[in-house]
Structures are given as structure tokens and as C-alpha cells.
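TL;DR need C-alpha cells for one chain.
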Amino acid sequence: MVLTRFGGPEVLELRDVASPEPGPGEVVVDVAAVSLNNTDVWTRAGAYGTTEPAGWLGPIDFPRVQGADVCGHVARIGEGVSEDLLGQRVLIDPVVRYSDGPERLVESVLGSEVDGGYAEQVVVRADRVHDVTGSPLSDEQLACLPISYGTATGMLERANVGSGETILVTGASGGVGLALVGLAAARGARVIALSSRDKAAAVQEAGADVVVDRGGGDVGEQLADLVPAGLDAVADVVGGGLVAVAMPHVRPGGRWVVAGAVSGPVIELDLRQLYLRSISLLGSTMHTPEQFEVLVSAARAGQVRPVVARTFPLEEVRAAHEEFERREHVGKLVLQP
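>> reply
TL;DR here they are.
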């Protein structure tokens, strides 16, 4: 399924294209499952542009095959790649290129700057595939992990969330939110999740100790009752007006880590809430290679249990995008080539 231009789901077209060939240090992976993300629909729409339509990291070369979250099997290898990889079930790190420097920032992503997994095959660097042959998770569950769970792992690592702490997860029924709930609970944290009432049961099943109904009255008052001593951390993918509402309920020395702004990127914030109480405000984009290794280890051991909301055949990707944008599902939507 090829992205032909910026626009609605209709700009995705089914085409026959040449099978990819691996170059030196590369492998070709037969795609078993590929999941959808916010980045897919926003990139398709050009929603990252401020004045002109643009992809996540800038201009997009069309036609482009989207799809960053890929689980599959290594089918062919390029020069210099170990034959041991052939036939392995693998999870792909979707970051094609990390920057050098003290913070390994993301510079290029599968399905954005290079062709991704909305296809029967994808070619990637051999050092980006991780063996998950023995994982108890299904191909569809594994395909849920890279972007959402990678982002969630990066957030929790950067905020240093540990056992016994209380964390608020915003947007808890979404892909990253649900990942945060499960991963934070697995670390032994007390998880307070912010979600709609109709999705509360699914969020609680994923590991939340308490679900706060975002439409059930003053969120600040609910937090004051639940955590009178204050939150140790907030993992935020919502942004918008929630920041001003919830920031007063973070304890002195607490952490607020943000990796999204689905309710709005521009906020009002009384800076005294930060500096007078020494609260850390942290930005987090996806994951580092080391953080992805942490996630892969958890997947191999079956310590994460991603929720697959629904699967679609690849040729129905337009319908999958439409369902994703309705945001009525809990968990991940997965394509099966």
C-alpha cells in the first residue's frame, strides 16, 4: 500500500512494486504483521507541517510505503550479514538512523524517510532486527510494540519511574497510553490512568490501579483526593489544558515527561509550579537503542501483553486508517500482509 501524496485515506493505493533487494549489511524481512500509529495517520495527512503539509521529520518523498511497526521473518540477507539470521522471527527497531551525541535523537524512521512495512516485504539494516523467535507473543502482538511501547519505555526510563511510586498516565486508552499503563505496572508503580468511562475497564485490565474519568468532573479535585501527597511522576501524551490542571498535583521534586500533544501543543503554565517545587519537565521522543533492547528483552520473556483491538488484511489499510481516526478502539489496529 503506497502513500501517493498528503491527504485522506484515499491517497493510499494498492500497487505491485519490485521486491526489495538487500544491500551490504541489510536483510529482507517477510512482513507477518504491521500495526498502525498516530504517526501513520498524521504523516499521511501532512499534519506535522506548520505552514505547509509535511511528514514527521520534514518533506516526504512520494511514493512512500508507510509502516514502522513490523514483525516478520528474515527471508534474504545481504553481503556481510550472518546466515544465522535467515528464518528468524524478528522485531524491527523502526529507527533507521540515530544521531551522534550525548542524546541519541531520532533522525530517520521506517515508513517515513524510507519505505516501511505496509507491504509483503521490507528491507532494513541487519542491526535493526532483533530475534524474537522464542517469544510467547503472537506476530500481531509483537507488531504492537516498536513505536508505542518503545516510546513508553523511553518515557519511563527518562523519568526514572520505579517500584512504589505513583504515576499518572494521560490518554491511557491509546497506543502509547496503554503501553505506559502496562509497563509502569510491571515496574511495580501505582498507576492512575486518565481515560473515558467507556474504556475504563480495558485500561484497568491492562494494569491501572485507578482509572480517573476525564469527563467525570474536575480532574484536579479527583487527583487531590487520590494522591494528597502528590504524584511522583506524570507520563503525558495529551498536553493541552490538562497540564495546568494536573501540574499542581505533582509532588515537590516530581517529574513530568511528555511525548505527545493530542489535545493541543500550546499550553498555559505558571512557571512557579515548576521552579518553586523543583519539578522536572522532560521531553521524550521515541527510544534509544538501549531502551529498545530493554523492550525486546521484555517481549522475549512475555512480560508485556499488548492488546490487539482488531486486525485487517493489508489491502484494507484505508478502512484501518478510518477506524483509527474514530478513536473508538482500545489497543492496536494491526495489518496482515
